[in-house]
Amino acid sequence: MPMISPKLACAIFTDETRGASLPLRPDVLLKTMSHHLRRHGHIVVGDLSLRLYKHKGPWRYDERDVRRAARDLTAVAVDHHDLVEVVLPGQRWRDEGRGEEEDAWNRANWRGQIAGWMYHEALSKELARKRPYTERSEWKRLGDNGLPGGLTWEEFVSARDGSGSSSTIAGTYPLELLTRGENRWWLPRAYAGLLDRWELLEEELLEQARLCSRCGTRGPRWGGWRTPTTSGYMTMCPPCSGAEFTAYTGHLRGVAYGQMRARKLRADGYLCRVCQSSRASVWDHCHEHDLVRGPVCARCNTIEGKGIPEYLLRREEVVTHLLECGRCRGERILPVRFHAAVAQLHLEAEARHASCPVRPHVRHRTTTRAGHVFDLSCDRHWTKKWRQEVPAAEAHELIRVFVDQALAIGQPGAGVPGPRAAFETDARP
Questions:
Q1: pLDDT in tens, 128-176
Q2: Residue range(s) defining the domain that contains residue 273
Q3: In terms of Cα–Cα distance, which of 340, 300, 344 is closest to 322?
Q4: What's the pLDDT tens digit per position in 199-225?
Q5: How remote is the C-alpha of 402 from its chain's centroid?
Q6: Same domain membership, residue 64 and residue 105
Q7: Rounded-to-integer distance, Cα 353 and Cα 387, Å
Q8: Burial of residue 128 (number of CB atoms within 10 Å: 0-12, 13-18, 19+)
Q9: What does the alpha-carbon distance between residue 116 and residue 156 come to, in Å, rounded to a whole number?
């Protein structure tokens, strides 16, 4: 199998599709960190899927697949005079749906994506005018040109041209062919049909990726059972993962990370300590105390290291994992990057604009020796903004209270062996 890098695949695809009438964007082949790759292991271009393979570490394409897809998409003839009407949905908020409707929000929907771009740019234009919240009701109204919020076509295209891959669908750029006439939107029939087939293909790939590779049980839509391996992602349900991998019991708590690395203990024989559903791939540790926390999968490791602190602290399993560091737990502290987030959560819960009952929007501004400084604004009273400081001593006490409450709820570490004895007797490879 002739395996090639994403960069070479993109170059080959670009060269072989120079005469294509479809508005192709080959850069999609470089998106090997795409969430779609985790979801189903493929990059979709037009109505064709290209599988990626893990080959000695990096992701690789099969060159034959790339050339075949390029030839097939180049052969698609787009007649600019054979048009079909495109009916775009109206604007709605993500939290308007529940259950099946909420699930449908994330399904492949090219008409919804185009409409979403329009409303996004209309709202951005409205926010730039800095009008009070009560005067923003008109930005969703469609004009005679079919665009909301008084957008012109030139403004819309200019804004989306600068957004890169976020304005592509199935590796194509629909705004290149979208036209307006007779108060309706139009696309070439061949291209609209291709986008319809893309929706079906995405659904087929997701459905296949939902099936546990061991027992065939159907899992969640969005990759909850997908786990990284040396050869790519695989799907395993929690029972199969539990049978295949060992649940970590905290037996390396208190062991120095450097000491454990010297012993070359592997993490991939364990379940992830955070999500409890995927195979672990690395040992996570407290960078401030150099103590092992536990085995985690690549996804949870990235989220814990780079995720937004105030969001992470709302997840009980993340807080419990952070407190697997013996010194953090014993001293009732958290890693430094979470200190301002604890104070921010406190202000969101307690601070208010006068007698207004609405929780304010709180944004961390800066941290000094004196404490943490935040910018607050009232979502109901748009013009009301203020600044508030949480002194260092108060912030330290808030962290201690936060940790005590987390320990009272989760009791991480109860009933596990001492770290040194466990480390000396650990027999895993």
A1: 877 665 566 678 889 999 999 899 999 999 999 866 667 899 999 999 9
A2: 226-332
A3: 300
A4: 999 999 999 988 988 898 888 776 668
A5: 27
A6: no
A7: 11
A8: exposed
A9: 12
